[in-house]
Design goal:
The chain is mainly α. The chain has 19 helices and no strands.
Length: about 375
C-alpha cells in the first residue's frame, strides 16, 4: 500500500502553533508517562512521528489528538524539551481546520489579524443591527429590553443563528467522524454504534478521561468552563426556547432578553448563578495561569486561546452588569450594556462554536466514542473468527 508523504506538513503545523517537534528523538518517554495512552492509541510519540515523516493522512485518521487533554506531564518530563503536549494541541487546531469544509477555521487559526478582524466585523454588524432596528419609543422610565428590541424579532434572529451554527457544527463533526472511521464507517453495524452511545454522552458531560490525568485541577477548571457554558447554552437555546410553554414561562423571560426577574431560589436563577461562577472561576484561573506561565499547558498560548478566554469572560461580565442595572432599574445603562453584551456574545458563538475552541466540545467526545466503537467491532470480529 502506497503512503503519501507531505514534505510541507511540519511547516504547515507550525502555522497552528507547533513548536520544537524536531527535537523529538522518539525515546517514548512521553507515551510512557501519559496516563491516558493505551496500547492501540499510543500518543503523543506516534503523532510526533507522523508529523516528522509528513504523514498527513495518518494524522487525519488519528483520534489520538482528541484523546489527549494536555495535562502537561509529557512536556514536563521530555528530556529534549520537544513540548509533546503542545504538539498535540497544535494538531487539534490543525484537525479542526481540516474538518471545517468552509476553510474559515484555517484562516482563524493561522492569522491573528484575520481572527481579530473577524471578531470586530461581527461585533460591529451586531451593534449596527441593534441600533438600526431598535424601537422608536423605548421605555426610558424602567429597564425594559423588550420595549427597545421586540422579543419576537430577537427570537427569529436567534433561531436563524442557531440553525446556521448547528448545520456548520454538525457537518464539521460528520467530517471528523468520516476521517476517523475511514472505510469502517459503513461496515460497522448500526447496533454497535447504538450500544456504545452512552460513551458519547458520558464523556461530553463529565470529561471523565481528563479526571485520570495527574493534574486534577486542570480537569476541574476544564469541567467548570465546559459545564458553565453548556448550562448557559441549554438555558438560552433549549430549556427556555424549546420548553417555553411546558414550564409556563412568558416569552419576556427567555433568550438574551430576560425582563422577568425570577425569585432568588428559582431553578433558572440558580442555574444562572452556577454558570456565572463556573465560567468566571475557570476563565480567571486559566488567564492567570497563562500570564504566569505556571504550568506546561499555559506556557505556549496561541492567539485563539486568548480570544476564547477574553470573549467568554467579557460575555459573562457584561451579563452580570446587565443583571445589576436591571435590578437597579437603570434603563439607558441597561440598554447600552445589552448592546455591548451581544457585540461580545454573538461573535463568540458565531466564530468559536463551529470553527474554533468550542468545536472541541463536539470533536473530543465523538473521537472517544468512535474509539470504543472500533474496539467493540474488533471484539465482535474476533468472536466470529
Amino acid at each position: 500500500m502506497s503512503v503519501k508523504v507531505d514534505p510541507n506538513l511540519m511547516k504547515d503545523l507550525e502555522a497552528f502553533g507547533l513548536k520544537d517537534a524536531n527535537k523529538c528523538m522518539q525515546c517514548g518517554n512521553c507515551t510512557a508517562v501519559c496516563p491516558l495512552s493505551e496500547q492501540d492509541n499510543t500518543f503523543p510519540r506516534r503523532l510526533i512521528k507522523y508529523a516528522q515523516m509528513g504523514l498527513t493522512d495518518k494524522i487525519l485518521k488519528s483520534p489520538e489528538p482528541w484523546l489527549c487533554y494536555y495535562c502537561g506531564d509529557c512536556s514536563d518530563t521530555c528530556p529534549r524539551g520537544a513540548e509533546p503536549g503542545e504538539t498535540m494541541m497544535a494538531m487539534r487546531r490543525y484537525l479542526t481546520s481540516r474538518y471545517d469544509w468552509t476553510g474559515f477555521s484555517r484562516k482563524f487559526y493561522t492569522s491573528e489579524i484575520f481572527e481579530i478582524v473577524a471578531v470586530a466585523i461581527v461585533a460591529i454588524l451586531i451593534g449596527l443591527a441593534l441600533w438600526i432596528f431598535h424601537a422608536s419609543n423605548p421605555n426610558m422610565e424602567h429597564a425594559h429590553l423588550n420595549s427597545v428590541w421586540p422579543a419576537s424579532a430577537i427570537e427569529i434572529a436567534d433561531l436563524v443563528m442557531a440553525a446556521v451554527l448547528t448545520i456548520l457544527l454538525l457537518s464539521n463533526t460528520y467530517r471528523c467522524f468520516s476521517f476517523i472511521m475511514g472505510d469502517l464507517k459503513f461496515k460497522i453495524p448500526l447496533g454497535i454504534y447504538i450500544r456504545n452511545g452512552w460513551e458519547l454522552v458520558t464523556h461530553f458531560i463529565t470529561q471523565k478521561r481528563f479526571g485520570d490525568c495527574t493534574d486534577k485541577m486542570q480537569w476541574f477548571v476544564h469541567l467548570l468552563i465546559m459545564t458553565g457554558y453548556s448550562t448557559v447554552f441549554m438555558l438560552v437555546a433549549v430549556f427556555l426556547a424549546g420548553g417555553l410553554h411546558v414550564v409556563g414561562l412568558s416569552w419576556e423571560g427567555i433568550m438574551f432578553q430576560r425582563d422577568v426577574i425570577y425569585p432568588i431560589l428559582h431553578p433558572m436563577r440558580l442555574l444562572g448563578y452556577y454558570a456565572t461562577f463556573a465560567i468566571l472561576y475557570g476563565t480567571t484561573y486559566a488567564i492567570i495561569g497563562r500570564l504566569k506561565k505556571s504550568k506546561a499547558p499555559y506556557k505556549s498560548s496561541h492567539g485563539t486561546d486568548w480570544m476564547f478566554l477574553i470573549l467568554l469572560q467579557l460575555t459573562t461580565l457584561t451579563g452580570i452588569f446587565i443583571h445589576f442595572t436591571r435590578l437597579l432599574d437603570w434603563p439607558l445603562t441597561t440598554y447600552i450594556l445589552y448592546v455591548i453584551h451581544l457585540m461580545v456574545a454573538v461573535p463568540m458563538l458565531v466564530l468559536e462554536v463551529p470553527f474554533a475552541k468550542w468545536a472541541h466540545l463536539a470533536f473530543r467526545p465523538v473521537a472517544v466514542f468512535l474509539v470504543k466503537v472500533k474496539e467493540a467491532y474488533k471484539k465482535e470480529l474476533e468472536q466470529f473468527a
